[in-house]
């Protein structure tokens, strides 16, 4: 099954994703995504309805596939104590560091019949994939290794989103260990050798030249995230926009969520280099702190997710960005 269009909007869960951004990308001939992450199933339904009212083009939905993993409770408690002073700075209370599956079952019900459903952090069972496909939905898996690609193929997925280490935001790795994710072009070659499936390249793609390079390396389409963060249709916060608009180094961190993610280096990342591996527990723990910092306009204590080439993002309408990227 071919992948079309060639330009795909990354889901951008957690604030930047809006129905208006998804629709604008689709109206420009790309593929817009409605991010389900961190929303309730009811809110996802509302946003999907809003996006559909704004476009006749294709729309995708992205969901998190989480499974509960063992957590070092002592390390998590110590991290909570470490963050108390950060929260007190804003008069905020830390959140409850709990596990939940982000309402996956309810969100799959909402997404039935969408043009595309993509998964991050894991793989749906084959019967869930078949159920979506029977309703006319293509199912894509985010993968960061050849083995994940083989496992997704075995589960019946239609296509793979191949995410290199250059990508901003969370790594889509199915197990968040310390194994490095390869650079995009290297990973594309590994996945192409492992499976014969349509591939969507993502990670560090910020220009038309990057898109062409990915397509010439075997991808069928390119997924772009950071390049759309400054679009007026995006819900990117003002402190995040300020950080994106100037040069800044990116690095991987678990400080904000307990899961590896790439963002622009700030004081919070530097102050908390040893955050425990505990997702979504740490995400819930820091959420009130980050919300308070964001409201205060403090870009030093919020997650500034961005890919390695975020400096090439421009503050343009989404339709213009699609046109600039189109090969």
Gist of the model:
The chain has helices at residues 19-27, 41-54, 73-89, 104-111, 126-134, 146-154, 184-194, 208-216, 238-244, 267-271, 281-295, 318-325, and strands at 7-9, 32-35, 59-64, 116-120, 138-143, 159-163, 169-170, 199-202, 221-224, 250-253, 261-264. With 327 residues, it is α/β, with parallel strands linked by helices.
Structure description:
By secondary structure, the protein is of the alpha/beta class. The protein has one domain: Aldolase class I (TIM Barrel), CATH 3.20.20. Helix content is 37%, strand content 14%. An 8-stranded parallel sheet has the order 1-9-8-6-5-4-3-2. The protein has a 3-stranded antiparallel sheet with strand order 7-11-10, with no helix packed on it. Strand 2 (32-35), helix 2 and strand 3 form a beta-alpha-beta unit. Helix 1 (19-27) runs parallel beside helix 2, helix 3 runs parallel beside helix 11 and helix 6 packs across helix 7 (184-194). The longest helix is centred in the N-terminal third of the chain and has 17 residues, at 73-89. It is globular, with a radius of gyration of 18 Å. The two termini are 21 Å apart. The model has no long low-confidence stretch (mean pLDDT 97).
């Amino acid at each position: 099954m071919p992948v079309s269009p060639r330009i795909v909007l990354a889901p951008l869960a957690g604030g930047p994703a809006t129905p208006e951004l998804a629709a604008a990308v689709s109206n420009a001939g790309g593929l817009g995504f409605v991010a389900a992450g961190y929303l309730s199933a009811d809110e996802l339904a509302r946003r999907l309805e809003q996006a559909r009212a704004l476009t006749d083009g294709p729309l995708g939905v992205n969901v998190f596939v989480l499974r509960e993993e063992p957590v070092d409770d002592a390390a998590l408690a110590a991290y909570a104590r470490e963050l108390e002073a950060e929260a007190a700075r804003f008069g905020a209370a830390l959140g409850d560091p709990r596990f939940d599956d982000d309402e996956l079952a309810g969100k799959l019900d909402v997404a039935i019949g969408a043009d595309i459903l993509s998964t991050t952090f894991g793989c749906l069972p084959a019967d869930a994939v078949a159920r979506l496909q029977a309703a006319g939905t293509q199912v894509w898996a985010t993968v960061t290794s050849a083995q994940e690609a083989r496992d997704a193929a075995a589960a019946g997925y239609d296509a793979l989103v191949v995410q290199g280490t250059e990508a901003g935001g969370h790594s889509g790795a199915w197990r968040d260990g310390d194994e490095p994710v390869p650079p995009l072009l290297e990973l594309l070659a590994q996945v192409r050798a492992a499976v014969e499936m349509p591939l969507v390249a993502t990670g560090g793609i910020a220009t038309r030249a990057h898109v062409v390079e990915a397509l010439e390396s075997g991808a069928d389409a390119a997924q772009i995230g950071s390049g759309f963060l400054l679009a007026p249709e995006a819900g990117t916060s003002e402190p995040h926009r300020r950080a994106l608009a100037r040069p800044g180094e990116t690095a991987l961190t678990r400080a904000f969520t307990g899961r590896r993610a790439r963002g622009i280096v700030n004081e919070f990342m530097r102050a908390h280099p040893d955050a425990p591996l505990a997702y979504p527990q740490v995400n819930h723990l820091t959420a009130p702190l980050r919300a308070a910092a964001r409201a205060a306009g403090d870009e030093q204590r919020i997650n500034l997710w961005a890919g390695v080439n975020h400096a090439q993002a421009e503050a343009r309408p989404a339709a213009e960005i699609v046109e600039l990227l189109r090969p």
